[in-house]
Amino acid sequence: MGFLDLFVVAVMPVLKVLLVTGVGLFLATDRINLLGPEARNYLNKIVFYLFGPSLVVSNLAETVTLDSLVTMWFMPVNIFLTFIIGSALGWILIKITKTPEHLRGMVIGCCSAGNLGNLLLIIVPAVCTESNTPFGDSCSTYAEAYASLSMAVGAIFIWSYAYPFVYAYASKSMEQNSSEEAPQLFPDSCTEALLPSSDCSNSEDYSGQGVLPLTNSDGRIKIPVVKNTVERIKIIMGKIDLKRVFAPSAIAAVVGFIIGTISPIRKVLIGDNAPLHVVDTSVSLIGEAAIPCMTLIMGANLLKGLKGSEVSMLVIIGIVAVRNIFLPLLGIGVVRAARHFGMVGSDSLYQFVLMLQYALPPAMSVGTMTQLFQSGQGESSMIMLWTYAVASISLTLWSTLFMWLLS
């Protein structure tokens, strides 16, 4: 199949995303105000607790079997690698651009966490519906299963991996701001901070001031590297929000796996002749509302970015480069290597989804985190606006290249 034909297959799903996202953005404007902050909040909760989990459990229950688990085991590993590589590139970016303290966690989050939910749920099945798709007739059978598993696993990693970074830097920035605003404990005339002084009225109450920490020859405090590393890991692990890690979509994925892989339960619920087939069809009907609702919310959330922010253009360019250039290139190498060592089967659609996970724009959940901590909200909206605008072009080109490499 020619490169131009593959480009047409790749561009149609992206156009669908752009159209629905544009509708969400339009509905969120002040003049229309159908998707204002309050409406988005309620709709987001419905998607989070009902539509999304229903979509995940129905898709996985209908398509996942014990045999397919052998094929899909590498996907969680691949998603974890996207987070590891992305966070490493994000750390390099904040060092190069000297990103402000309160934005560093958000930058790492944007570089590490991709939109593994609604974008794949739209793009992958839409590619299969094209008449000249390179993935064959079985494409539509597994497309939603791959995308649903990606959504569930991605939700776990976003709130267990990216969330602690955003929280750590945001809380550190808030602590620094509060310390700067705190009143001075000692009078300005007390300049000898480490030694008792007759000029300080209460110096006898601070007899411990004469004890200095261990220092090296340069006068800097010595902190064992191993101990410091362990303490940092403990702090980060302590910030993991287990309630968000085990989100409804993640729990739905477990339920879907149980239904799909345990034969007696599957026979009762799945199939036209199943006694409780109506339960499965009802859940599937509810889940069909998830994709349009999530995309509308995504478009509405981009509205803040149009109002501008003080984030450095260099930081935005860096995040765009990480998510649209470096990660996709590295993703090709990772999937190719996994295929070479037998960790990925011969299913070209599965390999396409694995590569596509490296080429997605940042997860909208990162913007949600900034709202939780009231830190960097305008900056995150601006970053999301630019990254999604660029992704509308880069995602089409990368999808075309991925299909060309696999066809």
TrEMBL record:
Q: How does it sit in the membrane?
A: Multi-pass membrane protein
For the keyword Iron, the answer is: no
Q: Biological process (GO) annotations?
A: auxin-activated signaling pathway; endoplasmic reticulum to cytosol auxin transport
Which sequence ranges are marked TM in the entry? 6-30, 42-61, 73-94, 106-127, 147-170, 245-265, 315-337, 349-373, 385-406
Q: Where in the cell is it found?
A: Endoplasmic reticulum membrane
Mind listing the UniProt keywords for this protein, alphabetically? Auxin signaling pathway, Endoplasmic reticulum, Membrane, Transmembrane, Transmembrane helix, Transport
* InterPro entries (alphabetical): Mem_transp_PIN-like, PILS1/3/4/5/7
Broad class of where this protein is predominantly found: endoplasmic reticulum
A family per Pfam: Mem_trans
A GO CC term assigned to this protein in UniProt? endoplasmic reticulum membrane
The organism's place on the tree of life at top rank:
Eukaryota
User: What does the sequence similarity comment in the record state about its family?
Assistant: Belongs to the auxin efflux carrier (TC 2.A.69.2) family.
Q: Which PANTHER family match?
A: PROTEIN PIN-LIKES 1-LIKE, PTHR31651
Its function, per the record, reads: Involved in cellular auxin homeostasis by regulating auxin metabolism. Regulates intracellular auxin accumulation at the endoplasmic reticulum and thus auxin availability for nuclear auxin signaling.
Q: What is this protein called?
A: Protein PIN-LIKES 3-like isoform X1
Q: Which organism is it from?
A: Herrania umbratica
Gene that produces this protein: LOC110425624
